[in-house]
Amino acid sequence: MPFAGDAAVYVKKFESRYRAEKTLQATFLERYTENGQVVRSEAGIAYFRRPGKMRWEYQSPERDLFLVDGKTAWFYVPSDYTVTRVPAKQSADWRTPLALLAGEMKVSRVCARVELANTEKPTAEGNVVLRCQVRGSEAGGAGSATRASDPNDADSPASPAGGQGDTVFFEIARETGELSRLLVRQSGGVQVEFRFENWRMNPPVPDSLFRFDVPAGVAIVNGELPSGDAAVK
User: Fold this and answer.
1) Is 56 within 8 Å of 73 (Cβ atoms)?
2) 14, 93, 183, 185: least buried by Cβ within 10 Å?
């Protein structure tokens, strides 16, 4: 059974909250932690659009962009005059579980099993934390560690930038199912946290927002996104 006990009730609320919307927008705070110490903290605006598109505008402390246009993942660093591109199907990224917001919004496509994480303290009263066993991570091995989901193909989810030993948590509002936080915790003391606020449903944003046009003078690098804490973005 993929959803244990009361977890099924909250999974249904979570799915219902976002399933009917074509476009989503939220402000986010992202923290990368090693052994309890915050290594990087950034903030910006995230957009999700079906089918399979995401845009992460990093505004603080630097202006960077991570964009998935449905086929290609782009990571643009204006200050370096470079953009890294990789086929979305090959992009192992911390945001992989969030691709469901731009897909069919079926948690079972990403999580092999979901249960209440009673030992995890929520960040706000009225929230509940769900522990997700990511599909592909339960088997371990190099294949599950590097295989990534295509946000445009909800049938092929996989482990987010990791593998065996990873734990993913979704924190949602008990009453509404609204997503408050995503937490990816790896063995070895590495943790990435995304906190979300100010959700907007179907904001009036153009399709061009989910298309990347390479600026003049910017070098294109083909390959995987940077490894380590730089890949958090």
Assistant:
1) no
2) 185
> In this structure, what CATH number is given to the domain that contains residue 160?
2.50.20.10
% residues pLDDT > 90 (the chain):
61
49/72 Cα distance (integer angstroms): 14
Q: Are 42 and 52 in contact (CB under 8 A)?
A: no
State the sign of the Cα–Cα–Cα–Cα dihedral 165, 177, 26, 136: positive
- For strands 37-49 and 23-34, give the pairing: antiparallel
**Is 179 exposed, middle or buried (CB count within 10 Å of its CB: 0-12, 13-18, 19+)?**
buried
Does the residue 2 lie in any domain?
no
Per the structure, how many domains does the chain have? 1
Instruction: Report how far residue 172's alpha carbon sits from residue 107's, in angstroms, rounded to the nearest whole number.
Output: 13
Interacting residues of 207 by C-beta distance below 8 A, sequence separation 6+: none
pLDDT at residue number 228: 43
Q: Which of 147, 153, 185 is closest to 169 using CA atoms?
A: 185
CA 151/CA 128 separation, integer angstroms: 26
pLDDT at 165: 55
Contact 72, 85 (CB under 8 A): yes
What pTM did the predictor assign? Answer: 0.82
Burial letters 91-116, b for 16+ CB under 10 A, else e: bbbbbbbbbbbbbebebbbbbebbbb
